[in-house]
Amino acid sequence: MILALRALGIGDLATAVPALRALRAAFPDHRLALAAPRWLAPMLDLVGAVDQLIDVDGLGPYQWPPLSPDWAVNLHGRGPQSHRLLHTAQPRRLMAFACPEADHHNGPAWRSDEHEVRRWCRLLAWYGIVADPEDLALRRPPPQNLPIGATIVHPGAKAAQRRWPVERFAAVARELTRRGHRVVVTGSSGERVLAVEVAARAGLPDSAVLAGRTGVGELAALVAHGRLVVAGDTGIGHLATAYATPSVLLFGPVAPALWGPPANRPWHRALWAGPVTSGRAVPAARPRQPGRTDPPESPPNPQPGDVHPALAALSVAQVLAAVREVEETGHELLAAR
Length: 337
Hints:
Elements: E1 2-5, H1 10-15, H2 17-26, E2 32-36, H3 41-47, E3 52-55, E4 71-74, H4 81-87, E5 93-95, H5 116-126, E6 151-154, H6 166-178, E7 183-185, H7 192-202, H8 216-224, E8 228-232, H9 235-242, E9 247-251, H10 256-259, E10 268-272, E11 282-283, E12 306-307, H11 309-312, H12 316-336
Parallel strand pairs: 1-2, 1-4, 2-3, 4-5, 6-7, 6-8, 8-9, 9-10
Antiparallel strand pairs: 11-12
Helix pairs in contact: 2-5, 6-7, 8-9
Protein backbone atom coordinates (compact mmCIF):
# COMPACT_ATOMS: atom_id res chain seq x y z
CA MET A 1 0.00 0.00 0.00
CA ILE A 2 0.97 3.62 -0.67
CA LEU A 3 -0.36 6.09 1.89
CA ALA A 4 -0.53 9.76 0.83
CA LEU A 5 -1.40 12.54 3.28
CA ARG A 6 -3.29 15.66 2.11
CA ALA A 7 -5.62 16.48 5.03
CA LEU A 8 -6.81 19.84 3.69
CA GLY A 9 -9.50 21.27 1.37
CA ILE A 10 -10.80 21.26 -2.21
CA GLY A 11 -8.10 23.45 -3.73
CA ASP A 12 -5.38 21.61 -1.82
CA LEU A 13 -6.56 18.27 -3.20
CA ALA A 14 -6.84 19.72 -6.72
CA THR A 15 -3.23 20.93 -6.63
CA ALA A 16 -2.07 17.44 -5.58
CA VAL A 17 -3.78 15.66 -8.51
CA PRO A 18 -0.64 15.41 -10.70
CA ALA A 19 1.30 13.92 -7.79
CA LEU A 20 -1.44 11.43 -6.94
CA ARG A 21 -1.68 10.27 -10.56
CA ALA A 22 2.10 9.95 -10.73
CA LEU A 23 2.05 7.74 -7.62
CA ARG A 24 -0.61 5.57 -9.22
CA ALA A 25 1.49 5.20 -12.39
CA ALA A 26 4.68 4.50 -10.41
CA PHE A 27 3.08 1.84 -8.19
CA PRO A 28 0.46 0.12 -10.39
CA ASP A 29 0.38 -3.01 -8.23
CA HIS A 30 -0.10 -1.15 -4.95
CA ARG A 31 -3.27 0.14 -3.37
CA LEU A 32 -3.18 3.95 -3.11
CA ALA A 33 -4.82 5.34 0.03
CA LEU A 34 -5.35 9.05 0.56
CA ALA A 35 -5.55 10.46 4.07
CA ALA A 36 -7.91 13.44 3.73
CA PRO A 37 -11.20 14.71 5.20
CA ARG A 38 -14.17 12.43 4.55
CA TRP A 39 -16.23 15.26 3.06
CA LEU A 40 -13.84 15.29 0.07
CA ALA A 41 -14.86 11.73 -0.88
CA PRO A 42 -16.95 12.82 -3.91
CA MET A 43 -13.78 14.28 -5.47
CA LEU A 44 -11.96 10.94 -5.51
CA ASP A 45 -14.04 9.62 -8.42
CA LEU A 46 -13.19 12.82 -10.29
CA VAL A 47 -9.45 12.39 -9.64
CA GLY A 48 -9.46 8.73 -10.64
CA ALA A 49 -6.18 7.62 -9.04
CA VAL A 50 -7.10 6.83 -5.45
CA ASP A 51 -8.37 3.47 -4.22
CA GLN A 52 -9.24 4.35 -0.64
CA LEU A 53 -9.99 7.39 1.50
CA ILE A 54 -8.86 7.41 5.12
CA ASP A 55 -10.65 10.10 7.10
CA VAL A 56 -8.00 12.48 8.45
CA ASP A 57 -8.94 16.11 9.05
CA GLY A 58 -5.91 18.05 10.21
CA LEU A 59 -2.82 16.59 11.81
CA GLY A 60 -4.17 14.55 14.65
CA PRO A 61 -3.27 12.90 16.89
CA TYR A 62 -4.84 10.06 14.96
CA GLN A 63 -5.13 6.30 15.35
CA TRP A 64 -4.49 4.66 11.98
CA PRO A 65 -6.35 1.54 10.92
CA PRO A 66 -4.10 -1.47 10.14
CA LEU A 67 -2.19 -0.35 7.03
CA SER A 68 1.45 -1.49 6.80
CA PRO A 69 2.19 0.94 3.94
CA ASP A 70 5.31 0.36 1.87
CA TRP A 71 5.57 4.11 1.37
CA ALA A 72 4.01 7.01 3.21
CA VAL A 73 4.03 10.17 1.07
CA ASN A 74 3.74 13.57 2.70
CA LEU A 75 1.78 15.77 0.26
CA HIS A 76 0.55 17.88 3.17
CA GLY A 77 3.42 20.12 4.23
CA ARG A 78 7.02 20.59 5.19
CA GLY A 79 6.78 18.99 8.65
CA PRO A 80 7.51 18.32 11.38
CA GLN A 81 3.91 17.59 12.47
CA SER A 82 2.85 15.98 9.19
CA HIS A 83 6.02 13.87 9.07
CA ARG A 84 5.43 12.67 12.61
CA LEU A 85 1.80 11.83 11.88
CA LEU A 86 2.83 9.62 8.96
CA HIS A 87 5.50 7.94 11.08
CA THR A 88 2.73 6.74 13.42
CA ALA A 89 1.32 4.71 10.51
CA GLN A 90 4.61 2.74 10.63
CA PRO A 91 5.47 2.88 6.93
CA ARG A 92 8.55 1.08 5.67
CA ARG A 93 9.74 4.29 4.00
CA LEU A 94 8.75 7.96 4.06
CA MET A 95 8.69 10.15 0.95
CA ALA A 96 8.83 13.76 2.16
CA PHE A 97 10.78 16.98 2.22
CA ALA A 98 13.87 16.96 4.40
CA CYS A 99 12.97 17.92 7.96
CA PRO A 100 15.64 17.52 10.65
CA GLU A 101 13.08 18.46 13.34
CA ALA A 102 11.21 15.25 12.48
CA ASP A 103 14.46 13.28 12.15
CA HIS A 104 13.88 12.98 8.39
CA HIS A 105 17.09 13.92 6.59
CA ASN A 106 16.20 12.36 3.25
CA GLY A 107 14.35 14.24 0.50
CA PRO A 108 14.67 17.64 -1.19
CA ALA A 109 14.73 20.98 0.58
CA TRP A 110 11.48 22.91 0.99
CA ARG A 111 11.12 26.11 -1.06
CA SER A 112 8.68 28.82 -0.01
CA ASP A 113 8.65 30.48 -3.46
CA GLU A 114 7.30 27.45 -5.35
CA HIS A 115 3.89 26.95 -6.91
CA GLU A 116 1.88 24.41 -4.94
CA VAL A 117 1.38 22.07 -7.90
CA ARG A 118 5.05 22.03 -8.86
CA ARG A 119 6.11 21.61 -5.23
CA TRP A 120 4.70 18.10 -5.01
CA CYS A 121 5.88 17.17 -8.50
CA ARG A 122 9.41 18.17 -7.48
CA LEU A 123 9.15 16.10 -4.31
CA LEU A 124 8.29 12.99 -6.30
CA ALA A 125 10.99 13.73 -8.88
CA TRP A 126 13.60 13.64 -6.11
CA TYR A 127 12.49 10.05 -5.43
CA GLY A 128 12.59 9.15 -9.13
CA ILE A 129 8.88 9.52 -9.91
CA VAL A 130 7.90 11.72 -12.86
CA ALA A 131 4.77 13.85 -12.40
CA ASP A 132 3.25 16.18 -15.00
CA PRO A 133 2.24 19.51 -13.40
CA GLU A 134 -0.14 20.15 -16.32
CA ASP A 135 -2.17 17.02 -15.48
CA LEU A 136 -4.86 18.95 -13.59
CA ALA A 137 -8.08 17.93 -15.39
CA LEU A 138 -10.80 16.18 -13.41
CA ARG A 139 -13.50 13.85 -14.73
CA ARG A 140 -16.55 15.87 -15.77
CA PRO A 141 -19.58 14.81 -13.72
CA PRO A 142 -23.13 14.99 -15.12
CA PRO A 143 -24.97 18.26 -14.38
CA GLN A 144 -27.63 16.47 -12.31
CA ASN A 145 -30.35 19.03 -11.52
CA LEU A 146 -27.99 21.98 -11.46
CA PRO A 147 -28.13 24.94 -13.88
CA ILE A 148 -26.01 24.63 -17.02
CA GLY A 149 -24.07 27.61 -18.32
CA ALA A 150 -24.32 29.60 -15.09
CA THR A 151 -21.89 32.29 -14.04
CA ILE A 152 -20.72 31.42 -10.55
CA VAL A 153 -19.90 34.18 -8.08
CA HIS A 154 -18.21 32.78 -4.98
CA PRO A 155 -17.60 35.50 -2.36
CA GLY A 156 -16.38 33.30 0.49
CA ALA A 157 -12.97 32.15 1.69
CA LYS A 158 -11.82 30.54 4.93
CA ALA A 159 -9.65 33.48 5.95
CA ALA A 160 -11.35 36.87 6.22
CA GLN A 161 -8.30 38.60 4.72
CA ARG A 162 -8.91 36.67 1.49
CA ARG A 163 -12.52 37.88 1.03
CA TRP A 164 -13.07 40.71 -1.42
CA PRO A 165 -15.65 43.21 -0.06
CA VAL A 166 -19.24 42.03 -0.35
CA GLU A 167 -20.44 45.21 -2.06
CA ARG A 168 -17.88 44.73 -4.84
CA PHE A 169 -18.91 41.13 -5.45
CA ALA A 170 -22.51 42.36 -5.58
CA ALA A 171 -21.62 45.09 -8.09
CA VAL A 172 -19.94 42.50 -10.32
CA ALA A 173 -22.91 40.14 -10.06
CA ARG A 174 -25.35 42.96 -10.87
CA GLU A 175 -23.41 44.04 -13.96
CA LEU A 176 -22.95 40.49 -15.23
CA THR A 177 -26.70 39.93 -14.88
CA ARG A 178 -27.26 43.08 -16.91
CA ARG A 179 -24.97 41.65 -19.59
CA GLY A 180 -27.12 38.52 -19.85
CA HIS A 181 -25.34 36.13 -17.49
CA ARG A 182 -27.33 33.76 -15.33
CA VAL A 183 -25.58 34.45 -12.01
CA VAL A 184 -25.62 32.08 -9.05
CA VAL A 185 -23.88 32.66 -5.71
CA THR A 186 -22.13 29.71 -4.11
CA GLY A 187 -20.43 28.97 -0.80
CA SER A 188 -20.44 26.63 2.15
CA SER A 189 -23.33 26.43 4.62
CA GLY A 190 -21.32 28.73 6.90
CA GLU A 191 -21.08 31.28 4.07
CA ARG A 192 -24.79 31.33 3.23
CA VAL A 193 -25.43 34.63 5.05
CA LEU A 194 -22.63 36.19 3.04
CA ALA A 195 -24.02 34.76 -0.22
CA VAL A 196 -27.54 35.97 0.58
CA GLU A 197 -26.21 39.49 1.15
CA VAL A 198 -24.34 39.48 -2.16
CA ALA A 199 -27.44 38.27 -3.99
CA ALA A 200 -29.70 40.83 -2.30
CA ARG A 201 -27.38 43.73 -3.10
CA ALA A 202 -27.12 42.50 -6.70
CA GLY A 203 -30.90 42.24 -7.08
CA LEU A 204 -30.78 38.47 -7.62
CA PRO A 205 -33.68 36.18 -6.62
CA ASP A 206 -33.41 33.85 -3.64
CA SER A 207 -33.16 30.92 -6.05
CA ALA A 208 -29.79 32.24 -7.23
CA VAL A 209 -28.24 31.52 -3.81
CA LEU A 210 -26.78 28.02 -3.92
CA ALA A 211 -24.51 28.46 -0.89
CA GLY A 212 -25.06 25.62 1.55
CA ARG A 213 -27.07 23.66 -1.02
CA THR A 214 -24.21 22.09 -2.99
CA GLY A 215 -21.80 19.49 -1.68
CA VAL A 216 -18.37 18.93 -3.17
CA GLY A 217 -19.69 16.78 -6.02
CA GLU A 218 -22.47 19.21 -6.92
CA LEU A 219 -20.10 22.17 -6.80
CA ALA A 220 -17.73 20.37 -9.18
CA ALA A 221 -20.63 19.65 -11.54
CA LEU A 222 -21.79 23.27 -11.42
CA VAL A 223 -18.29 24.50 -12.35
CA ALA A 224 -17.78 21.78 -14.96
CA HIS A 225 -20.90 22.93 -16.83
CA GLY A 226 -20.59 26.61 -15.99
CA ARG A 227 -19.96 29.66 -18.13
CA LEU A 228 -17.65 31.59 -15.80
CA VAL A 229 -16.29 31.59 -12.24
CA VAL A 230 -15.56 34.80 -10.31
CA ALA A 231 -14.00 34.08 -6.93
CA GLY A 232 -11.16 34.75 -4.55
CA ASP A 233 -8.16 32.56 -3.85
CA THR A 234 -10.11 29.48 -2.79
CA GLY A 235 -11.00 25.94 -3.87
CA ILE A 236 -13.57 26.75 -6.55
CA GLY A 237 -10.86 28.49 -8.58
CA HIS A 238 -8.95 25.21 -8.79
CA LEU A 239 -12.11 23.47 -9.99
CA ALA A 240 -12.37 26.08 -12.76
CA THR A 241 -8.80 25.22 -13.78
CA ALA A 242 -9.57 21.50 -13.70
CA TYR A 243 -12.59 21.93 -16.01
CA ALA A 244 -11.19 24.71 -18.23
CA THR A 245 -14.10 26.91 -17.22
CA PRO A 246 -13.15 30.57 -17.76
CA SER A 247 -12.38 32.25 -14.46
CA VAL A 248 -11.39 35.53 -12.87
CA LEU A 249 -9.69 34.94 -9.53
CA LEU A 250 -8.84 37.65 -7.02
CA PHE A 251 -5.63 37.15 -5.05
CA GLY A 252 -4.32 38.72 -1.86
CA PRO A 253 -2.19 38.32 0.18
CA VAL A 254 -0.86 35.13 -1.45
CA ALA A 255 0.54 35.65 -4.96
CA PRO A 256 -1.01 33.70 -7.86
CA ALA A 257 2.53 32.55 -8.71
CA LEU A 258 2.15 30.27 -5.68
CA TRP A 259 -1.49 29.17 -5.91
CA GLY A 260 -2.94 30.53 -9.16
CA PRO A 261 -3.98 28.84 -12.41
CA PRO A 262 -1.31 27.92 -14.98
CA ALA A 263 -0.02 31.00 -16.79
CA ASN A 264 -0.33 29.30 -20.20
CA ARG A 265 -4.15 29.16 -20.03
CA PRO A 266 -5.44 32.61 -21.03
CA TRP A 267 -9.07 31.79 -20.26
CA HIS A 268 -8.11 32.08 -16.57
CA ARG A 269 -7.15 35.48 -15.16
CA ALA A 270 -5.55 35.86 -11.74
CA LEU A 271 -5.75 39.45 -10.51
CA TRP A 272 -3.22 40.56 -7.92
CA ALA A 273 -2.16 44.04 -6.87
CA GLY A 274 1.32 42.86 -5.96
CA PRO A 275 3.03 42.64 -2.55
CA VAL A 276 1.13 45.54 -0.98
CA THR A 277 2.72 46.25 2.39
CA SER A 278 0.74 49.30 3.42
CA GLY A 279 -2.61 50.84 2.82
CA ARG A 280 -6.08 50.90 4.27
CA ALA A 281 -7.62 47.51 4.93
CA VAL A 282 -11.33 47.05 4.24
CA PRO A 283 -13.61 45.51 6.90
CA ALA A 284 -14.53 42.00 5.85
CA ALA A 285 -18.04 40.69 5.52
CA ARG A 286 -19.32 38.41 8.26
CA PRO A 287 -19.45 35.58 9.18
CA ARG A 288 -15.75 35.11 9.82
CA GLN A 289 -13.99 31.78 9.87
CA PRO A 290 -10.45 30.95 10.91
CA GLY A 291 -8.18 30.33 7.95
CA ARG A 292 -4.72 29.24 7.05
CA THR A 293 -1.89 31.44 8.23
CA ASP A 294 -0.76 34.06 5.74
CA PRO A 295 2.68 33.47 4.17
CA PRO A 296 5.77 35.45 5.26
CA GLU A 297 5.32 38.15 2.63
CA SER A 298 1.98 39.12 4.16
CA PRO A 299 2.28 42.45 5.99
CA PRO A 300 1.44 42.59 9.69
CA ASN A 301 -0.78 45.68 9.55
CA PRO A 302 -4.23 44.22 8.63
CA GLN A 303 -6.30 43.29 11.66
CA PRO A 304 -8.03 39.89 11.82
CA GLY A 305 -11.27 40.24 9.89
CA ASP A 306 -9.95 42.93 7.53
CA VAL A 307 -9.60 42.39 3.80
CA HIS A 308 -5.90 42.37 2.96
CA PRO A 309 -4.72 45.61 1.24
CA ALA A 310 -3.50 43.68 -1.82
CA LEU A 311 -7.03 42.36 -2.31
CA ALA A 312 -8.74 45.61 -1.36
CA ALA A 313 -6.75 47.36 -4.10
CA LEU A 314 -8.65 45.42 -6.80
CA SER A 315 -11.57 47.37 -8.26
CA VAL A 316 -14.90 46.30 -9.74
CA ALA A 317 -13.82 47.80 -13.07
CA GLN A 318 -10.68 45.63 -13.13
CA VAL A 319 -12.70 42.49 -12.48
CA LEU A 320 -15.27 43.30 -15.17
CA ALA A 321 -12.53 44.05 -17.68
CA ALA A 322 -10.91 40.71 -16.89
CA VAL A 323 -14.26 38.97 -17.35
CA ARG A 324 -14.56 40.43 -20.83
CA GLU A 325 -11.03 39.27 -21.68
CA VAL A 326 -11.46 35.68 -20.52
CA GLU A 327 -14.85 35.40 -22.18
CA GLU A 328 -13.43 36.53 -25.48
CA THR A 329 -10.54 34.08 -25.11
CA GLY A 330 -12.71 31.23 -23.88
CA HIS A 331 -15.55 31.59 -26.39
CA GLU A 332 -14.21 28.92 -28.76
CA LEU A 333 -13.30 26.69 -25.82
CA LEU A 334 -16.84 26.81 -24.44
CA ALA A 335 -18.31 26.14 -27.88
CA ALA A 336 -16.21 22.99 -28.16
CA ARG A 337 -17.20 21.57 -24.77
